[in-house]
Design goal:
The chain is of the alpha/beta class. The protein is built from 21 helices and 16 strands. It is 38% helix and 14% strand.
Length: 565
């Protein structure tokens, strides 16, 4: 009997060590708050980056929201604000996570491959069973409302493991960042309509070059089209999508007959590059576009001489504030229709990234996971990105009631959104505060940005609209770009690979990207290029860079993740 009692006591101690005994009867049913039902808050030790703009993580509005909603006591250990990942990696390798009894690593941006390696080392837990067993009530709701986002698939390893509660902010503008901007005054000077097709675009550039578009009496000082290598600034992404879909990244994946291939293997892609080559040969596209950065472009485009007709950029914010007169020279051109009726925007879907990782040493891993899921809501994002409701942001109804004299306009009305939120007191770049964690937390921001609103009329004579505000132009244009994004039969979502597959990709992927980009640039600007012979170009990709195996691996990953579901 004594022996049995000893065994039972030892088992109880072991269960207590890992939190299961303490958790029994102390965790609420999924979806019921507070998550922890004990008479005292449960302690969760969180490792997170420090931030000099957060005055106190303990006395913090976002921290208190979690603690009060979940009945927990968050106790923080801090990573340095600089060299953060290096310090975290050192702590993991040196065993400090276990020594310091860390329950949760709260660090955003960890790749699926790195998270898997930490899981294989026994540092963080595979929480896929928690998702499968209905414990992620907020994540489940987000997936149900936005199945096309692949919220959990994006952070799932090829073997089916998941290592975090993630974060995601959906940005319609960033998803379609390769935008074209046209000098509105030049169009008016020459009596031209805004082009809608590739042929009309070409005719416009010719007119810009030959007809003294800036009206200064000198028909030779205009640069019809020049851009930079800045964010959303390549010369070719926007125009190629009038011939064939090309994604924002250098892999250029697309689906054809349900299988992964690439844009640069399609005949239409070469037609697009030939069109760009023609623009360079005729002096319509400046060759400096392939070497200029945004500062270089600003020096040329933002001058009183007004010598630039067309640029590409995500927002043109590099030119100045939203009402800067140089920035307001340019209107956003909608995606063009090509000779075969093709019209896409260069697109990459917003994707989840790992954030809230439960360690293998957590006293109560299920509680830790559910506290992460508690934050994975639009409400969590609003609190964690903007601050306190009615102090830093309001619902449309509350703002309208408090400011009946002001006119509210949906930021992404061009996408069909009517708006729900007004963000009117953004303190991120201002004083030190204790309102939030500066986005270092799990959250779901599915339609928050899309449902944003702005005050169009402040009651003092200032009316914000497309005529006087570059941000309005950016967001309105982004909406139209979203309307022609590729469908699920064309777009390839985030792919997850096995370790063996990653080894092969490591040997060829970067080289393929570099080779295609270099040959494309040489071809467009008129230098000797392998693209002059399409068959030789493709054969070289296969023989030298192992393209066939590369695509086979990518297609295998796609079929495994998406086609079989």
């Amino acid at each position: 009997m004594k022996k049995c009692l000893s065994v039972l006591l030892a088992a109880a101690m072991l269960l207590s060590l890992f939190g299961f005994a303490a958790a029994e009867g102390e965790l609420s049913e999924p979806g019921v708050l507070p998550i922890w039902t004990g008479s005292e808050p449960a302690v969760i030790r969180v490792l997170t980056p420090e931030n000099p703009k957060v005055s106190d993580f303990d006395d913090n509005a976002y921290t208190k929201w979690i603690e009060e909603g979940c009945n927990v006591d968050l106790q923080f250990t801090f990573l340095p604000a600089t060299d953060t990942l290096q310090k975290l990696t050192t702590m993991i390798a040196g065993g400090s996570i276990e020594d310091e009894k860390i329950d949760v690593i709260n660090y955003s941006g960890i790749s699926v491959a790195v998270a898997k390696s930490w899981g294989d080392e026994g540092v963080i837990l595979d929480v896929s069973d928690y998702y499968a067993n209905g414990l992620a009530v907020n994540a489940d709701a987000a997936v149900a409302s936005h199945p096309e986002m692949n919220l959990i698939k994006n952070i799932t390893t090829a073997e089916g493991a998941v290592y975090s509660v993630p974060k995601i902010q959906v940005s319609p503008s960033n998803e379609t960042r390769f935008k074209m901007w046209v000098n509105q005054q030049w169009l008016e000077n020459l009596g031209l309509e805004v082009p809608t097709t590739i042929d009309e675009f070409y005719a416009m550039l010719v007119a810009f070059k030959e007809q003294d578009a800036n009206g200064n009496g000198n028909a030779d000082d205009e640069i019809p089209f020049i851009t930079s290598t800045g964010f959303g600034g390549t010369a070719y992404k926007f125009l190629t999508n009038a011939f064939v879909f090309e994604s924002v990244d250098d892999d250029m994946f697309l689906l054809k007959d349900g299988h992964v291939t690439t844009s640069y293997l399609q005949d239409e892609w070469l037609e697009a590059q030939t069109f760009l080559k023609k623009l360079c040969e005729e002096g319509l596209l400046a060759k400096e576009s392939f070497t200029y950065n945004n500062d270089d472009l600003k020096a040329v485009a933002c001058s009183d001489d007004d010598i630039v007709g067309v640029v590409t950029n995500s927002s043109c914010a590099f030119m100045g504030q939203a009402n800067d007169p140089y920035r307001l020279r340019y209107i956003c051109l909608n995606p063009l229709t090509g000779p075969e009726g093709v019209c896409f925007s260069s697109y990459a879907a917003s994707a989840t990234s790992n954030c809230w990782m439960v360690t293998s040493y957590a006293a109560n891993p299920e509680l830790c996971f559910r506290v992460g899921d508690y934050q994975f809501t639009e409400d969590g994002f609003l609190r964690g990105r903007f601050g306190v409701e009615n102090e830093n942001w309001m619902t449309k109804e509350n703002y309208a009631a408090a400011h009946p004299e002001e006119t509210l306009v949906a930021r992404y009305g061009s996408m069909g959104f009517e708006g729900k939120y007004v963000f009117y007191n953004d303190i991120r770049d201002q004083t030190v505060n204790n309102l939030y964690w500066y986005e270092h937390m799990p959250y779901f921001a599915g339609d928050v940005e899309s449902n944003g609103m702005y005050v169009a009329d402040d009651g003092k004579g200032t009316v914000i609209n497309l005529e006087n505000n570059g941000t309005c132009r950016q967001e309105t244009g982004s909406g139209y770009y979203q309307l022609v994004k590729p469908g699920l039969d064309t777009y390839v979502p985030t792919l997850a690979f096995t370790e063996d597959e990653l080894e092969v990709l490591a040997e060829c992927q970067a080289n393929i990207r570099t080779y295609v980009k270099e040959q494309r640039t040489k071809y467009i600007i008129g230098d000797a290029s392998d693209l002059a012979d399409k068959e030789a170009f493709v054969q070289n990709l296969k023989d030298t860079f192992n393209l066939d195996e590369f695509l086979e691996i990518c297609d295998r990953a796609y079929q495994r993740q998406y086609a079989a579901k």
